[in-house]
Specification:
By secondary structure, this protein is an all-alpha fold. It has one domain. It is built from 6 helices and no strands. The protein has helices spanning 2-18, 23-50, 61-72, 76-83, 88-120, 123-137. The radius of gyration is 20 Å and the shape is elongated. The termini are far apart.
Amino acid sequence: MVQAARSGKQNIVEGYAALATSKESGIKLFNVARASLLELYEDFNDYLRVRDMHLWEPDSSEAKAMAKLGVENSDPRYFVSLAETRSDEVVANMTIILIKQAISLIHKYLDRVNENFAKEGGFREKMTQVRLNVRNKM
């Protein structure tokens, strides 16, 4: 679970950096991040299931409250302080909600990157166009 979480975070960071020079590489890394987070999501679901713990329903008051907290707070220390005073079951459910939000944000970001790529092209296309412009001026 630790490796999946770390992989998700690292691939988001690397994907964002890679987008500056290669949309293809950036998109691939974001997809790896999404896959890692999906793996982590399943691990937390399994954690609850094998321990006969309750998984919050998406429309439950707990899930809605946690989703709201996930939107309103971006400081990890805030969530750590919450987790320190909650049961394992509640912490697992809180984490599931946050993972789902992260996956949703990745989907939205990739949609925007793909839309931008379709309109503007990629780095290679732009460099080719610059080179062609220089040749045409000669």
